[in-house]
Give the backbone structure.
Amino acid sequence: MPRQRIIAANWKMNGNLALVDTMTSELNNIKFSDDVKVVICPSFVYLSALSAKIANNNIKLGAQNISEHASGAYTGEVSADMLNEMSASYVIIGHSERRSIFGETDKQIALKVKFALANGLTPILCIGESEAERVEEKTDAVLSQQLQPVIDEIGIESFKDVVIAYEPVWAIGTGKTASPEMAQETHQFIRQFLAKNNAEIAEGVSLLYGGSVNAANSKELFAQTDIDGGLIGGASLKVDEFKIICSAAQGS
Ligand code: PEP
C-alpha cells in the first residue's frame, strides 16, 4: 500500500483569525489526491475556529503540543481530551523548540506519544540533529537516541499510527535547507533504523522532512524515495506559497 503523503503546517506562535479565514477558503477548494493529507496545526486558541471552517476531507486539524497527563493541576497545559473535543486528529510532539526552549526530554516526549496514541490522536514525532552534531558526524547517533525511547515506550508495532518528521535543527527557520540527497540519506537511515525492529512497519511509516521548505524546493524534496511530505513552518503562513507546497505533494 502506498504511504500516506502529508503536508503539515506548523503555525507556531503566529497566525490569527484572518489567516484562519484566508487559508481555509483557499485550501477548501483544492481537489487533493486520495493519498494526500494537509494537516494545519495552529496555536491552541485557533483550533475551534479552524475546525469550524475546514470543509475538505483531505484537510485535518492538528495541535502543536499535548500534555502527557490526563487532567489536573497543570497550569497552561492542554490535554488529549481537549484536543479531541476541538476535533484535532494530529499533534506535533517533540518539536526542536519544545526540546531546546522548554526542556522537553526524550522520556517526556515518549510519554506524550504514548498518551496521544492512547487517545486516538496521531503523533507527528519530530527528531533532528543540531548543526554541531551534523558537523561532528553524530547525526545517526542523535536520531537513534531520540527514536529509541519512543520505541521502548510504545513498541514498534504502534509506529503504524505515528508520523515522523525529520527536522535538522540547523534548517529550521534559517533558510538553510538540507539538499534533497542529504535529506533522502537521513530519511533512509530513519526507515532502516525502524526496519531493524520491524521491516513491515518501517515501510508504512510516513516520514516528513522539515526545515525551510518553500515553494521552490518542495517538489524535489518530496520526490525523494523516503520523503513522504513535509512539516512546514514559515512558508505555511503564506497562503499562495503553502498552496504550491501542497501541490508539490500531489502525485510526487
Ligand atoms: C518547523 O518549525 O517545524 C519548521 C520546519 O520551520 P521552517 O519551515 O520555518 O523552517
